[in-house]
Design brief:
- The chain has two domains: about 10-110; about 115-185, no CATH class.
- The chain has nine helices and no strands.
- The protein has helices at about 15-30, 35-60, 65-90, 100-105, 105-110, 115-125, 135-140, 160-165, 170-185.
Length: about 190
């Protein structure tokens, strides 16, 4: 099976894409400049909150309830760092200098992820083949979740709208123990 995608070079075939890209460029150009300031503030506040929560958890390890609450807060802050800092840094949307954004991406390594693999997965395997069945790495590893109508239907998919919210946090284990290795060795 040939896994190479062939796109036609006919300009009329991609006119919708070109119109959409122009619209997006116009929208992003008109965004308020203050958003960068707030993004940079979050880039400082979230990691400091993470560090403070971690140090507090270590200090209060004798108080089990507070200890577990602080580690739950660490989990929430980790997600916020990923969504608000790491993702934007991968797209070079926080600082003008690429090296500064790349340095910021290293935060991901400190909160338990792998910045190299995630950057490759997101920028190469997701954005180059966004939502293309068989190519987008984010949807290829959806597991029990059925994303496309033509996908294989399991009985559990009738209830996926209920269980996704309960089991999605456990997806982190799949990400760390399986998916990172799959993506690292993917050609």
């Amino acid at each position: 099976m040939d896994n190479k995608i062939n796109f036609k070079k006919n300009p009329s075939d991609n006119s919708h894409y070109r119109q959409l890209r122009k619209l997006i460029k116009n929208v992003t150009t008109d965004l308020p400049k203050s958003r960068i300031f707030y993004k940079r503030i979050m880039t400082v506040i979230l990691p400091l909150t993470f560090l403070l929560s971690y140090l507090l958890a270590l200090s209060y390890r004798d108080y089990m309830l507070l200890y577990f609450i602080l580690f739950a807060v660490l989990g929430i802050i980790s997600v916020l760092i990923f969504i608000n800092v790491i993702h934007d840094a991968v797209h070079d949307n926080i600082f003008k200098k690429q090296w500064a954004n790349n340095a910021l991406i290293l935060l991901f390594d400190h909160i338990g992820g792998n910045s190299y693999i995630w950057k490759q997965r997101h920028m190469v395997l997701h954005h180059n083949y966004q939502n293309i069945s068989g190519w987008d790495s984010d949807i290829e590893q959806a597991g029990l979740i059925k994303i496309y109508p033509q996908g294989k239907k399991l009985k559990i998919n009738n209830y996926q709208h209920w269980f996704i919210f309960f089991f999605y946090p456990l997806y982190l284990f799949n990400w760390i123990l399986i998916r990172d290795f799959n993506d690292f060795f993917l050609k």
